[in-house]
Amino acid sequence: MRLIDRTRAEALANLWLAGPATVAVLVLIFIPVSIVALLSFTDYQFGARSFNWVGFDNYLILIKDPQARRAITNTIVYAAIVIPLSILFGLLVALGLHSVMRYAPRLSAILRAAYFLPVAATLVAMAVVWQMLLHPNLGLVNHLLAAADIRGPAWLSDRGLVLYTLAVIGIWQTVGYNMVLFLAGLAAIPEHLYDAAEIDGANRGWERFWTVTWPMLGPTTLFVVVVTATGAFRVFETVATLTRGGPAFASDVLVYAIYREGFVYFKAGYSSAITMVFFVFVLLFTLAKFRLMESRVHYR
Amino acid sequence: MNSRNLIGRAIVLALLFLGAMLVLTPFFWMLSLSFKSQVEIFSPTISLFPDQLQWDNYRAAFERTTLLRFLVNGLVVCGGILFFQILFALPCAYALAQRRFRGRSLIFGLVLAGLLVPFHVTAIPIFLGLAELRLLNTYGALILPFVASVFGIFLFRQAISAMPVELFEAARIDGLSEGAIAWRIALPLAMPAATAFAIFSVVAHWNDLFWPLIAISDPALAPPPRGILYFRDEESGTDVGPLMAAAVVIVAPMVVAFLLAQRRFIQGLAVGGLKG
Amino acid sequence: MIELRNVTRRFGTTTVLKDISLAAEEGSFLALLGPSGCGKSTLLRIIAGLDRPNSGEVILGGRDVRNLTAAERNVAMVFQSYALYPHLTVAQNIALPLAMRGRSRFERSLIGRWFPASREKQQEEIRRVREIADQLGILPLLERKPSQLSGGQKQRVAVARALVREPSIFLLDEPLSNLDAKLRVQMRAEIVAPNRRIGRTFVYVTHDQAEAMAMADKVAVMLDGRIAQFASPRELYETPVSMDVAAFVGLYPINFTKAADWTALPGGFRLPPGSLPQGKQVIIGIRPEHLFPDPEGPVRGKLVRMEYQGAEVLLDVRIDGGTLVKAVAPGDWQRAEARGDLRLSYLPRHLHVFAAGSGERLELARDGQHEDERATTCG
Lengths: 300, 276, 379
What we know:
By secondary structure, chain A is an all-alpha fold. Helix content of chain A is 75%, strand content 0%. Chain A contains 13 helices and no strands. In chain A, helix 3 (66-103) packs across helix 12 (254-264). Chain A starts with 5 loop residues before the first helix and ends with a helix. Chain C has helices at 40-48, 90-102, 105-108, 116-136, 151-163, 181-198, 209-215, 233-238, 243-248, and strands at residues 2-11, 14-24, 29-33, 55-60, 63-64, 75-78, 169-173, 201-206, 218-223, 226-231, 255-259, 282-286, 292-293, 299-308, 312-319, 324-330, 340-345, 352-355. The longest helix of chain C has 21 residues, at 116-136. Helices cover 26% and strands 28% of the residues of chain C. By secondary structure, chain C is α+β, with helices and mostly antiparallel strands. Chain C starts with a strand and ends in a 24-residue tail after the last strand. The chains are: A mainly alpha, B mainly alpha, C alpha+beta.
């Protein structure tokens, strides 16, 4: 009749179905995370035969050494610029396109594609283009400024400017994404709410926005904030392509520091410490998101 | 239609148009430079349109470096990653969604926890592991680390949970094995989720620079982002034209894909936003 | 031939099936009748092999099928939602179980299906699918997808899919409940016909007592996880074994009246002397369809409400003693005043008597002496 007991056959099926993925998840995610955590307390270098436990030394360097600290502060500054501005512009464009959609849907679609293009285009390649745009002598930007008799600076090699330049590129690359998310949120607002508001006396654009649009966009805005924030913390491609963290660590960011310390200088232990700091940042933010999502989304 | 409204609309449209032009400037510039000769590029006067269309730049780009190879690598790597991701994720998602067994909550908990871990965090140990296995600098090095897609498992599980149980029971009565049910019933019905996931995965890995920078040193394996960097740093020198031409070629696939299937593309990326 | 012995199923702390035992003959049409949540669907799934009992045995065709999977038990099931594969055509839906049984894994695979042996089998499958589709009148629908079918059509496809496998047992889980009332009555015949034709056992789950009564050879009334009565429809209707069964079966809700003393029943109802032991507290029951207006009837009361239904008139009557009962008059019965005194009559054999405490049916004695024998009273 049967080779094996039915319960066993069922258990075997479950093993085949979920087993490989579970093993992969453990091997590729959980075990590495544990190893990174451990390594952060060592001075291990790639290729070395042995290593020592150094306790919190790596972390202390990160906190104390001004050069090392820059990675953290730069990332925060970068995020602080990109997040609000990218969201603001995304919202404004979405509001604009949303209204244009009513009387010129084709045009709205074309404009939407235009704003989204930077999101779709491979960032590294576009960064190379930005490099040309921002070239002190050959670049379009400085040429245009020269036409207005302004001496354009070295956008990517000026210590005081470079982080802001990168932030602008970051905003450029993410506005379209936020726009799309806001558009979806706007489309979901039922028309009759605006009708009710109009009856209540709010019929100007500004009033409509504050009484209906903004509150109803709550969950969407939250989502957008989290997505933009996590993306901003992970900035890497532009830094690696345009500045390599320089000049003099002026544009050093967390992920680039992880790369540089670990894979250019091979200081695996130290890099692991940076990784853990990065991880904590991301975790805090993601957990904050879950918390907020739980409490906020129930206003309906 | 009063004039107030009309003026308002005109202003909004003008602003949007202006913004779009600003946003598209890098693209225009990229195209423009790719068709200009070196002399033109370095000349003191600036113009959007080249004097003559220099297709030479494109020829040079393809000759000087293995542009096509970079694109092919992108296909191989992204295709390989997607293949394995679905191979592992779908049956697991099916089991989590529609079968009862001990440890089910535990595994799902692992999946949820895994969503919190960005890839960068696992880079160092995975690098060490691959080095031990002598897999560095191979396609395997580019594909294997991404095989465990907790996001894929999560997405598929949500989709399959929403399917009526009776469908699977009917399949069992009909004699399908559990694996057959996962692949022949659950997957076709989860196509929307699968497509969104596929787009998200391919786009994310196509554009990734971090891992290829770490895992490979042979340009013959370089996916597009690593490839263009390689071109810029090693080969193009001061030849801006070919470099821009190369950039156009590198950017083209994603842009074309986007323009052809805008809704799906956006949906796929938006879904990926769930991951955070 | 199906036999269930002491089947029990618990989910956590709730016991959904409590010690179920029954046996159905080969080729019979068995209905599992009960309200929602009584466990009937669970029982069906246990028979199918989709679920396992905590204790008890399931014996199909003489074999203990405990260790067999659903596919191995050679049963077919029609689900309430039909469970048709949305991404396959009707023909593919019906063919699937056939292919799973008839062809090996290899013969079904992308490569193997091109081999001659496999192709022959596929031809046979197509032929069989068309045969069944023709029988059920869905031949023109074969290339459609389920989303393009109406409720009735989907139901037929589901039945076709079940029939095509020629199983030993057919299980049907409320397959008509998603259809509108008229269609439901029509489809009843379509479901019973195959049972008569091929002579295999059907187990039919429903909460609709009219369906069960119309279609089944034997009905298992399930209440609160137990089988309250397992009998033919006629026996259920005429001699329900408890108040709960009496209340569940029958078109109109049965009337109950409590009486502290069975010799002095309220409203004018009467039991012959000596029917029951002295002092027994009873609840009498009579179905509205057995209570009719009669100017010389023994039951006295006041008409409270009338509801004209065309073929019948439903009456709400408050009988002496205070109870509100329902009665049924023929459609052409008319009355000048909508309210007022009314007298009702009934046939004595239609009067059910139940014990006041347990609700169990009480047998009435003949000849003035209460005895425990099975007898119907006569007037």
